[in-house]
Amino acid sequence: MLASSTLADVLFTLGLGLLLARWLGMYMSRLFQGRPTVVDPVFDPIDRAIYRILGVDPRRPMGWKEYAGCLVLTNALALVFVFLVLFYQGQLPLNFWHVPGMTWDLAFHTASAFTTNTDYQHYAPETQASLFSALLGLQTLMFLSAASGIAVLVAFIRGFVRKDGMVGNFWSDIVRTLTRLLVPLAAIGALVLLFAGVPETLAQSAHNALLGGGFQLIPTGPVASWDSIEMIGTNGGGYFAANAGHPLQNPTAFTNMIEIVMMMLLTFAPPFMFGRMVRRPNEAYPYLGAIIVLFVVALLLLFYFEASNPYVSGLNVSQSHGYLVGAESRFTISESVLFQGISVYGNVGATSMSLGSLTPGAQSVLLWGMFLQCAPGGEGTGFGMLLINALLAIFVGGLMVGRTPEYLGKKIGPDQIKWAIVTLLSHPLLILVPLAIAVAGGLEQVAAGPGSHAFTIALYEFTSESANNGSGMGPINDNTQYFNVAGGLVMLLGRYVPMVAMLAIGGALARQPAIPPSTGTLRTSSVTFTLFLVGFVVIVTGLLFFPVLAMGPWAQGVNWP
C-alpha cells in the first residue's frame, strides 16, 4: 500500500504541471497567431536578424507541400551534419576523454534518434560522446526536433481556420518556436536545476578524493542545460547512461518534481492552444479530458502493478513502500512511477527506473502508452495524433448515423481519411516488420532473459523508436548493425510519415470554405464526445496491438495471482 503523503505529492505535481501548461497554451496561441506578446520588443530584432541570415521572407504563406519540403530538407541537413560530427568526433576539439569516432551504423542511429526527437541511445553518453558532439551536435538537434514538432502541429491547426489552402510559413514558425518558446524555457529550466544541485560545467570530469586514498574520476559536464531541454523538449536522451536515475542528473525529490513539471509543459499545453487558435476555447476540453482519462487510468494501473510484486510476497521481503527493485531509493515509488508515466506517455523517454525490472503488468502499461502516442504524446505531434484520431472518430460516427462528417465547419472527406489511415497503420507496421525479422533471425536473443522477456525487450525497442519515445528496456546489446540501421529507419519513418500526413490533412482542410453548423453537426465540445473519442482510441489501439502484448509481457505474467 502506497503512503497517502506520497500520493498527495503526485496530485500536487500534476496540478502544478496542468496549471502552467494552461498558461503556456494561451501564450502559444497568441504567439502563432501573430498577436502581440510582452516579449516582442526583446525578440523581434533577433528574429529579423535570423531571417536576414537565412534569406527568407517570414510573411509569405506556404502550401502544405512547400511547408513539408522545408521541414524535411532542414531536418535532413541537420541529420547529415550531426552524422559527420559523430563519425569524426575523434578528430574534433573538446574531446577531453579522447573518444574515438562512432561507427557509421551507430552514428546513423544516433543522428536519426536526435533528429527525430526520439533520442534513443545505443551508446554510453558520458564515455562515448565528446563534449563537442554533445553540445554542437546532439543538443542542437534537441532544440530543432522539438521546434519541428510544434511547427507541424501549428500548421495542422491552421487548416481548420484558413480558407486559402495555406498553412503558414515554416521559417516563421520554426524561428519563433525557438527564440520565443524553447530557448527561454530551457534557460529558465537550466537555472532552476542548477540552483537545485544539478551541475553545469564545461569540464567533462571531476576528481573526487577517496577515503582510502587516491582519486575517483567522475564524468560531468553541462548537465543542467542538457537536462532542461531534454525534459522541456520531450527529447529524453540522458547526459548519462542512467538518465534521470543518475544522481548528478536528478539528485533529489525536488529536482524529480521539477523535471516532471518540465515534461508536462509542452505536452499538455496544445489543447489550450488549439481551442484559442480555432476561436472556440471550449473545444480544448474534450481533448484535455480524453488525455487525462487515458493517462490517469494508466497511472493508476502503474501504481497498482508497482505497489507490490506478488511473486516475492511469500519471501518475507517487506514491500511496505512498494516494489523497489529497479527504482532509485532516493525517490518513493509514487514519485518514480509518476516520472516514468509522464515520460513514456508524453513520449519524452527519460528514465528514472530500470524498465526491465518492472513487473510485467507495468511494462504492458508503458508499452500501451507508446502504442497510443496521444495521451498526451510527444511535443506537437502527440496532440496532432489525437486530432487525427478525432477526425477518424467523427468520420466513423457520421457514417453510423448517415450524416456527412464535418468538424469545425470543415467536411471530412476522402483526402483527409486516406492520410489519417496511412498515419494510423504506419505505426504498427514500423514496429511489427522489424520485430518479425529480428525474431525470425534469432536476433532478439541479444536480450537477456527467457523467451517472452527477450521478446518484450525487442518489442519495446522498436515500439519506442517508432513512437519517437526513446526509452529503452534492458538488458540488450542493441549496438549492432541490424538494430542500428533498422532502428534508425524506423525512427525516421515513424517521425516524418505522420508529420507529412498532418500537413497534408491541414492543407486539404485549408482549401475548404467554412460551412455553417446544422442540425446534423456533431457537437464535439461535450462529455459524450470525450467518452466516444476515448473509446475509439482504446478500441482501435487494442485491435492493432493486443496480439503482441499477449506474446510479450502478458506471457511473462500469465501466472500473475
Mean pLDDT over the full residue set: 91
Classify the secondary structure makeup into a structural class.
mainly alpha
Radius of gyration: 23 Å
Q: How many strands appear in the DSSP assignment?
A: 4
SSE series: HHHHHHHEEHHHHHHHEEHHHHH
The main β sheet shows up as: 2 strands, antiparallel
Protein described:
- With 561 residues, the protein is mainly α.
- 61% of the residues lie in helices and 2% in strands.
- The protein contains 19 helices and four strands.
- A two-stranded antiparallel sheet has the order 1-2.
- Strand 1 and strand 2 (215-219) form a beta hairpin.
- Helix 1 (4-32) runs parallel beside helix 10.
- It is globular, with a radius of gyration of 23 Å.
- The two termini are 17 Å apart.
